[in-house]
Amino acid sequence: MPHNEEQDAEALMSRRKMMGVVVGVINLGLIAVVGLPVAEFVTSPLQTKRKKVWVELMPDDQIAPGEVKEVNFSMKIVDGYHETERKYTVYVRRDEAGVMAIDPACTHLGCRVRYQTDKHRFVCPCHGGVFNDDGTNKSGPPPKPLERHPVKVENGKIWVEREV
Ligand code: FES
Question: 90 pLDDT exceeds 70?
Answer without folding.
Answer: yes
